[in-house]
Amino acid sequence: MDKGLSCPVYKKCGGCQLDVTYPQQLSYKMRTVIGLLGRFGHVEPVVGMDEPLHYRCKVSQAFGYSRGRVLAGVWQSSGGKLTPVENCALEDARATEIIRTIAELATKHKIRTYDERTGKGFLRFVTVRVGKQSGEVLVALGVGKERTQSAEWVEELVGRCPYITTVVQCVSTDRRNLVLGEQETVLYGGGQIRDTLCGCEFLLSARSFFQINPTQTEKLYAHAVEAAGLDDSQTVIDAYCGVGTIGLIASKRAKSVTAVELNPEAVKNAKENVRLNGAENVRVLQGDAGVFMRKLAEAGETADVVFTDPPRAGCSREFLESLTALSPKRVVYISCNPETQARDLRYLTQNGYRVTHIQPVDMFPFTKHIETVVTLTRK
Ligand code: SAH
Prior knowledge:
The chain has helices at 10-13, 22-37, 93-108, 151-160, 214-227, 245-251, 264-276, 289-298, 317-326, 338-350; strands at 58-66, 69-75, 82-84, 123-130, 137-143, 166-171, 184-188, 193-197, 200-204, 235-239, 256-261, 282-286, 305-308, 330-335, 353-361, 371-378. The chain is α/β, with parallel strands linked by helices. The protein has 2 domains: 10-51 and 213-378, Vaccinia Virus protein VP39 (Rossmann fold, 3-Layer(aba) Sandwich), CATH 3.40.50.150; 58-197, CATH 2.40.50.1070. A 7-stranded mixed sheet has the order 3-2-1-4-5-6-7. Strand 11 (256-261), helix 7 and strand 12 (282-286) form a beta-alpha-beta unit.
């Protein structure tokens, strides 16, 4: 591909920030990473995608109403206008088809769309999640409290998109954010889908956190586990574990894994995933990663390898202090924000560690985001 996207809604949508050729995007990202992390060591060439389109396996779009039709797209932050998005080049094609079909069926069945100002109406947004390997597809409708007869048109939706595995409906009445609330009703299928990453199986529900680009996620996790240098003998910590992805993949080559995560629902998913994979050497704990590390350090415990994959804010100071007290031989730091990662690397390199490998991975073509895996070794 030698052009940008030539997308008609590029400016209004805001989902993409780099409308240049893919090689240009990759060199932009390399410059960003070298600028922030280059002083810690050599930065390996970014791992890009062979085909950087239609990679998004999780897609959300909002619904609005105009001139007798239900439309799907994104809300403009100013002015409360919906920009219809019909052919997004980043979305999985099945997700695009499902969203278009929902808008058509909602128009046909006169389903009222949700009005943020009044809190009235029903259909607000949809999140589609596609299992890349399994082919299973979950559709989650974000809806208002109003009672509406979804059953009839959901049957029609599944008839027209027979690859859909399950449909759920979650109440979503947060004024500002399009978030799927906890009140969930399963309308079709089992309410969850499965997918495979690096040979491990994962259960995904409407609200669980899971990387949205499975092709690149496999490369990212495979590299992270490789960088840890596991040989079945190590005790491993997976901090900020989400639904347990990295810990489970690492557990095949480790003696034991302790995974820690703050979000109770993610912890529940992680435990299910441990059972699903029969990984008897993995335990999952709920709590703040910093507090957990401090307790381990205070108890005089040790670990051979620590994986850390924090949110954009990076690791807490408490976490970093306890990490150096715990003094694992290796730390593999996966980050979605090289700015906070640079801050944390400064601390770690001043407190007993040296950076031995820096690997950027492009998880989000056409956006400015970049993921990095930094390997640190105890001096
Ligand atoms: N490693 C996972 C998830 C990374 S996202 C994966 O690759 O899929 C970061 C995770 O950190 C989220 O699941 C978030 O809920 C969790 N988190 C945020 N703050 C935390 C804290 N203080 N302690 C532990 N986990 C935290």
